[in-house]
Amino acid sequence: xxxxxxxxxxxxxxxxxxxxxxxxxxxxALDEDxxxxxxxxxxxxxxxxxxxxxxxxxxIAELPEVRQAxxxxxxxxxxxxxxxxxxxxxxxxxxxxxxxxxxLNGLVCAEAARVLGHPDTTNVAASRAFRDMGFDSxxxxxxxxxxxxxxxxxxxxxxxxxxxxxxxxxxxxxAALDGGHxxxxxxxxxxxxxxxxxxxxAALEHSERASVTVRLRTLLAQWTSEETEEPGGIAEKLDSxxxxxVFDFIDRELGLS
Length: 257
Fold this sequence. Notes:
This protein is mainly α. The protein has 15 helices and 2 strands.
């Protein structure tokens, strides 16, 4: 157990102190009556990007080593593919659009499973949020590193947080490998993934859920309607409906009446 915990700390950039160094630090703290002190051997190039991947961390933000590590990470914005990416791009170019997406999504899921320590991709679904799979700041950065190696792209430490599902990440990588020309559907799908996360964790009253339901059904009706739809469609009717009419509409749509 202790060995496993030690490996976990090393993966996060926290190295074991040599006994003589640790004892000397403790002795100095006692001699100088230092009551609030932390002594650690930190690999900031590993620890800082992972620790700050989800949000800023004021506790360490002013340390010169942290600023240097984060500045180094920040310069790794999306750029054109390197050698690995060129090879992958050539492979993708020989495939149909559907097969390109399927192939790259398979790579994303395989690397996600490997980072999480799974023997296969059974527990890694394309539409499932990385957060729900068990990703944390460390594993998010590890997946970023893996996808950098696979694609040859330089990618930000926030990659998994910016594209929260394998499907969204796949679309982003496809666009980057294709020269940065994202399809118009990519941001829409990403926002839908975020909306799904928001809804899954929302604790709403009955009336609030009803309002959200009406809004979602209105958007869906607008999205699926024909361009020639007459004025006065479902959206307009719902906007002018009374509360009782809205609840009647929801009940009919849910098959409750």
